[in-house]
Amino acid sequence: MPEPEIRELRYFRAVAEDLNITRAAERLGIAQPPLSRAMRQLEHRLGVDLFDRSGQRLELTDAGETLLKESGPVLDALDSAVRRTQRAGQSSRGLVVTAKPGVATELLHRIVSELRGEFPGIEVVVSGFGEQADMVRDGRADVALVSRPFDDPGLEMEELYTEPRVAALPAGHELAGREVLVAEDLAGIPAPRWSRSNVAERNYWSARPDDPVEGPIVQDSSQLLEVVAFGQAVALVPQSMAERNIRPDVVYRPVTDVEAYRMFVVWPAGSRSKELARFVEAAIRHSSQEEA
User: Fold this and answer.
1) What's the whole-model pTM score?
2) What's the pLDDT score for residue 106?
3) CA distance 62 to 74
4) Angstrom distance (rounded) from CA 119 to CA 257
């Protein structure tokens, strides 16, 4: 059986996501008739119907749903391989490192300050919530500082440090009068939701993942603390973040039975370079100094 072409898979994903040939053709920058022929050719190659065309609206068949799910990692892996190949061929490609704003970027500043003289080609990309592991996997970054939870496939890593998480509460909250809290104390209280977070991430940042109460969506740590200060939510935050953000309208209390905050340095599985090795070594050393 002839294998599908990469072009056909990309076309298929556009149609499957839009379920509209006209819109998909516009996205792809091609005419509608060639796109329709490409979908028929793909179905012929595979020997199955990918779309149900019997109704007024295009629908995916079971086979189409399967191909949509399975083709994503294939195309992502190809894109990653292309990016890495192109970067490997650059004479002075440097080292692209990424972290999200907050606790991780403070550590990143110290690492980069040490290595900048030795490797002047270091490029820092400050990325959004939950993006770091994906950026390393797909070739946009060589190494990242990232906290749990994240997906492990395709990555190697070293744990840098752990620290407790504490509850950030409005200064006037009834729980602010207690010295120590447990997760059950936060039952029924809204928790902020990080933008673009998945289920595992939302569960991790909720003290009560089995019975969550969703609060406002936040984009960064500063917005999270404002949401808390206005009494819209109670948040779990790393202890170091609490120590760096002392303010009169927010109080922090230990929560004894929630999972600790864990920071990792991660890089692509099998990736080896002098720059990467030095970055990892510096990350481990600076993390140890911080804990001490």
Assistant:
1) 0.67
2) 84
3) 19
4) 42
